Amino acid sequence: MFTKESFVISGENLLKKVKELIAEGNIRKITITDKGGKELMSFPLNVGLVGALFAPVLAAVGALAALIGECTITVDREVKKEEEKTI
């Protein structure tokens, strides 16, 4: 089961937030949209994804952060079995 969360963030903090979300490990997909709701970038995260393979995506996020002022990050978060029972 998945839940969706959204964060409104400035472009200068975008890369930092994406790295934090990746470090959490229970994120399945990250979507970045502009103020108007237009999807700018979307990428899935796999459990076995290693840093070297993910470096080009982080480079693209960094470039995007330099170009936009404010954006929304939407994450699909995997809910663990224990959490599903309480929902």
Q: Can you give a write-up of this model?
A:
The structure is a single chain. This protein is an alpha+beta fold and 87 residues long. It has one domain (2-86): Tetrapyrrole methylase, C-terminal domain (Methyltransferase, Cobalt-precorrin-4 Transmethylase, Domain 2), CATH 3.30.950.10. The chain contains three helices and four strands. It has helices at residues 14-24, 51-67, 81-86; strands spanning 2-10, 27-34, 39-44, 70-78. It has a four-stranded antiparallel beta sheet with strand order 1-4-2-3, covered by helices on one side. Strand 2 (27-34) and strand 3 (39-44) form a beta hairpin. Helix 1 runs antiparallel to helix 2 (51-67). The longest helix is centred in the C-terminal third of the chain and has 17 residues, at 51-67. It starts with a strand and ends with a helix.
